[in-house]
Amino acid sequence: xxxxxxxxxxxxxxxxxxxxxxxxxxxxxxxxxxxxxxxxxxxxxxxxxxxxxxxxxxxxxxxxxxxxxxxxxxxxxxxxxxxxxxxxxxxxxxxxxxxxxxxxxxxxxxxxxxxxxxxxxxxxxxxxxxxxxxxxxxxxxxxxxxxxxxxxxxxxxxxxxxxxxxxxxxxxxxxxxxxxxxxxxxxxxxxxxxxxxxxxxxxxxxxxxxxxxxxxxxxxxxxxxxxxxxxxxxxxxxxxxxxxxxxxxxxxxxxxxxxxxxxxxxxxxxxxxxxxxxxxxxxxxxxxxxxxxxxxxxxxxxxxxxxxxxxxxxxxxxxxxxxxxxxxxxxxxxxxxxxxxxxxxxxxxxxxxxxxxxxxxxxxxxx
Length: 367
Fold this sequence. Notes:
Elements: E1 9-13, E2 25-31, E3 34-41, H1 49-53, H2 58-65, H3 73-88, H4 94-123, H5 127-147, E4 156-157, E5 160-161, H6 169-191, H7 195-201, H8 209-214, H9 219-224, H10 231-234, H11 255-279, E6 298-306, E7 309-317, E8 325-329, H12 331-343, H13 348-358, H14 362-365
Antiparallel strand pairs: 1-2, 2-3, 4-5, 6-7, 7-8
């Protein structure tokens, strides 16, 4: 009897396949539905944002960097402003710091809502996606009320923020975080006991803490693998040391734990926003910064805890009104490199779940 043998073949997933979450091409080497090898190909979205910023004044860089990671554009505004402030030794008014924390945490929740909705939809459920967009819309209304924008905000500026919140913001914000906290419990009841959801997520795409650290993983992906590390606590910035919150950490490093970390993080962000609203002081919203801002010569790297992990800006000043060098760092770039490592031996359907659980956004990769 002749021996039965299978033949490997290659298939392209993307760059326009919906589960690639942007223009990412995955070249799959398959044996049937079993994955032998995954090769990510990037570069379809490259826009040279860093080089463009080197030819713009410092204030002009902020709306450009909004597009660096547009799902959490507040973080992009903030990390660049923080770098410029450290170079120029600018002290940000206390009220502005509180407003920044409120906006950063609301944007973190909005980003995780996109993660939750798209991940569950990729795996086969539509209703949670609609629920997530419904709750995210409440946060978008708050942003529109504050700065007139719903996606790219240009709100956090060097020295503070562009404008104060309207009087109706605080009661609306309290109502929003209360509703979201309640809805997250509903999400858990909807999915966590579902046998199909559990089969598609538990034990799938397991990432060891050693491999996560070796590849520079950060944020929810690192914490889902059992490493309790959060820049808000471990490399403090702004006024996060004034708030009481937990750092959700899980141990298995699979799709399910990466999902649970983000759900818990949203509830912790609600706590931070509530505390910031309670402690919001009166005062100025922006330090006095000259329109033709020129920081002294120097070099700085600032990093913050973004919804996708460590977001950083390496800024070099030559004393002029334009950055001499600017290099942005996004968590998605490091995380995408992990995909080939943990997808070997999985099925194509598992790859969709694994990629979704990484919450990669391609503008952060293809700067």
